[in-house]
Amino acid sequence: MRRSFDRRLAWGSTAAAALMLLAAPAAVHAQQQRATYSFDIPAQDLSSALRAFGQASGQQLAFDEATVRGKRAPALTGAYTADAGLKRLLNGTGLTAQSTASGVYAIRAKTLLVATSAQVEAAPAAAVEPQPETPSEVEEVIVVGTPGGKGIDKLSASFAVTTVNADDITKASPKSTAELLTLVPGVWVETSGGVAGANVFVRGFPATGDAEFLTIQLQGAPIYPPSTLSFLENSSIFRVDETISRMEALRGGPNPIFSNGQPGLTTNFQLKDGGEETHGLVKASTSDYGLRRIDGVLSGKLSEDLYYMVGGYAARSHGVRDTQFDNEDGQQFTVNITKRMEHGKFNLYGRFTDDHGAWYLPFAVNVPGIDKGEYTQLGEASRFQTLQVHANGATRSFDLADGRGWKGYVVGGSFEHEFGEGWTLRDRFSVTKGDADTYGLVPDGGAVTVSALNAVVPGAITTRGGATLGANDYVQSWGAWIVEKQIKAITNDFSVSKTLGAHALSAGYYASSFSSDDFWTIGNFEAMQVKANGDYLNGVTCAQIQAAGSGGSCFKFGLTSAGDGRVDALYLADSWQVFEPLRIDLGVRRERFKTDYVVDDGPGFPDGLAPRTTDYSNSKTSYTVGVNYDINASSGVFGRYSRGYKFPSFDNFREGLTDTLSVDQYELGYKLRSGPFELYATGFANEFKGAKFADVGGVQESNSNKAHGLELDGRWRSDFGLSLALNGTFQKTEITKSSIPGNKGNSAQRQPDWMIRFTPSYDVTLGSVKSTFYGTVSAVDDRYADNANTQVLKGYTKVDLGAIFDVSDFTVQVSADNLTDSHGLTEGDPRSTSGANARPIFGRSFKLSVGYNF
After folding, report:
1. pTM, rounded to two decimals
2. Average per-residue pLDDT in the chain?
């Protein structure tokens, strides 16, 4: 017993001595933390400032040069403790100083789960590499959904937001901006129309198409305040390229309060910034559909505290749906200048775009021999059109190769300054101007056989090119639709914030002016052979195709119009930290909307004789309340209610619709970011009143709708290179009231009850080549093409694969889109609900890119 007691005493004494040895550095460090030091460090790059700090204080600092590269530190003058001094130097950098058990300050990205190590030792201010952060633990500061772009940690946000970084964008390799939105849960995107002209639906919000509830921001400012006009939605005038660093996507939440008050989806794209060192990329891309594309980006330092980034692309291709000519043709140039100051930042940017592509429309998917993945009616025979444009008989010539796109610019900037004592001023502004035109070939009714046409037009049916059609061949009416829009917009968002005890108060003024001057000639239907790049028929009219049973209308419609709008909004917000885990977010917005609109649409053509005018003004108050509770450092829950509005657009006034849509949204969410896991789950319920809409040439309808569902957005990263990402949406939509009684109780058109996207990725080094293999499986449920729920669009599954290889300074990427050549349908024909016409997704395609990094 005595020997056992002695052993326990010896073991206890040894443990006590070890604890004393381990505690000694911590005790010394605690005394050092209370000590003050005299500093006289000028504003400079962060790396140099940290070295000067270490020399002045004698503190040991450990940091990775790559982590602090490109960051600036303000001047530090006066007496400070080590903690206070470092906090000031690191303010606004996204970094923090974590005190280790050995007394070393480790400079690293802010984390939610702080792990310290007794093994980090360094000479004063020596640059050593700390242990790498787990990516999912690093703080993500988001700008969208905050007053004036104030920013908040993603895990702390009391709303559902998805972030997509540059690596995710590269892997997605989107053919259009809208295609990138497929990464966002709660959003159903139809990208089958081409590089522009997508349809975007948001978690049950009722719409006929386009993107009525999507706002796209650049650097936190809307590129065009109205989310949608006929033949124009925000993604049509924005292109993703190598100058983009990340995308943020906010559904619902505080959207109705800030910026342009979008109640649905706001996506904010952030440009890359310059840093202390010069970096660049040149990339060439090709594909099996004739793509020739060059991308480039260059960034660096112009002078002290002044940084730049420039970049852009030039591209041409005949598209996955080959029109027999290069229909995708464009270029873009972007410049971003940033001035960093001691207490703030000033930013200016400009983006100049001239890019368009064929506008692909629904076609007769029930015709034998049609290749749903590659078919297009548009071709050389229908490319050039001469059309009547005025009641006086005047004509113009058009080239349908111009398709749908954007030729214009978006310029803007931001200013931020901290005045001390909790006061901060912010301002964001943008100016947009250009042409957003749409030229396309649109079907009228379904296809009929030549034998059916012969009952109306006896004899041989021939094309203008001299081909004679057989009795079992198909014919259909197609029309050249021309919509030209000259748009302008100016926006400014000014805010002031003040920290007052447990309250973070903000007040702001948002103002925007916008216009759209339009010319339309649509309809113009003529008889054509149903064949890829089909020809026109000799001596056959649209009316005869109609008489043969196509169900078409053979209408013609034209207009000239000019609309001017203005929005003035005041907003107030408070983020109240009730106690440490609990925060309450409040916001209110008072908005005044004014419109002047004039349209001349005459009897089929504008004639200048009887223009109709609208002078409209209305005001609404939106509000939101959110509650955020931090369960622990890595997880939390939130709840939110918001009331927002959508004012009528120019197109609504043309149709005599002046009601304002109100939107009530309820959200309850759980969020987790711990170690290798990241999960955001959001339950939502929406209610809509006053939804009045009609697709062009379709049936006008007034509805009330409701929806509820669940969004999932999760990711797991292993320590051996494997990562798994999953997002999904499960929802139920219902038309609760309709001006068409038979539609009451139906599901909202073109929105699936569920959709899932699963993306595995594996990083591995093969010899000296760093490699990434990735893929995506997307699955979507059945949908209805119309509110009457008469045409079912069957669900489908799509598979994409890719690989990226880093060889020295070169990066090689190969990708396969729709590998299994799935032929899922994204929409029907709003002017013919028989189901004969639909627009499938693009067929299988392959792409290769080679980039040089320097």
Report:
1. 0.84
2. 88
